[in-house]
């Protein structure tokens, strides 16, 4: 298990690094089998410290948590508590489904684009309907079951997740609806 503890424009001492590895190690030993690595980043905004952590599991899933507090140790402890809650839910779901993924999640490449926001102040019609691309990045799309996709979305704290369905060909989407439920888009492929 690799730990990468760093700070954004703040110095992270050896005592904090040891505390992070010890406490997060206890959580991961209890709930996550074979985690590969953990990235913990501390930053300071105003008078508060923020801790963001990402744990990569050997199944290909990622767990994310973040917290902030006036003390750097309290920020990490709150973040670790959130991580523990997510991993406990993940482990419970695996037990409920009586299924443990033995093969890692398959990933395939895709392009991700960031489009320029339109100015709502300008009341004129746009010259073209083609949006301006301001950034292009490489991203990975996982091959998951629908249940695993929902779990991954919740672990990441994301509002939406694009994935390839294990049982079908094609790209699917799960998303959090405004009413709190989960929506699933499963396009029908015509033959």
Describe what this molecule looks like in 3D:
With 191 residues, the chain is of the alpha+beta class. The chain folds into two domains: 2-96, Ribosome hibernation promotion factor-like (Double Stranded RNA Binding Domain, 2-Layer Sandwich); 106-118 and 127-185, Sigma 54 modulation/S30EA ribosomal protein, C-terminal domain (SHC Adaptor Protein). Helix content is 28%, strand content 38%. It has three helices and nine strands, in the order βαβββαββαβββ. The protein has a five-stranded mixed beta sheet with strand order 5-6-7-8-9. It has a four-stranded mixed beta sheet with strand order 1-2-3-4. A hairpin with a 4-residue loop joins strand 3 (48-57) and strand 4 (62-69). Helix 1 (14-31) runs parallel beside helix 2. The protein is globular, with a radius of gyration of 20 Å. The mean pLDDT is 81. It is found in: Cytoplasm.
Provide keyphrases for this structure.
191 residues, alpha+beta, Double Stranded RNA Binding Domain, SHC Adaptor Protein, 2 domains, 5-stranded mixed beta sheet, 4-stranded mixed beta sheet, 3 helices, 28% helix, globular, RHF-like, translation regulation
User: What is the H-and-E element order?
Assistant: EHEEEHEEHEEE
Proportion of β residues? 35-45%
Provide the helix percentage.
25-40%
| CATH architecture annotation of the largest domain | 2-Layer Sandwich
**Straight-line N-to-C gap:** 46 Å
The total of beta strands comes to 9
Q: What number is the mean pLDDT?
A: 81
CATH topology of the largest domain: Double Stranded RNA Binding Domain
Main-sheet strand order equals 5-6-7-8-9
Helix vs. strand class: alpha+beta
Output the CATH class name of the largest domain.
Answer: Alpha Beta
User: Cα-atom Rg, whole angstroms?
Assistant: 20 Å
Give the number of domains: 2
**Counting H and I runs of at least 4 residues, what is the number of helices?**
3
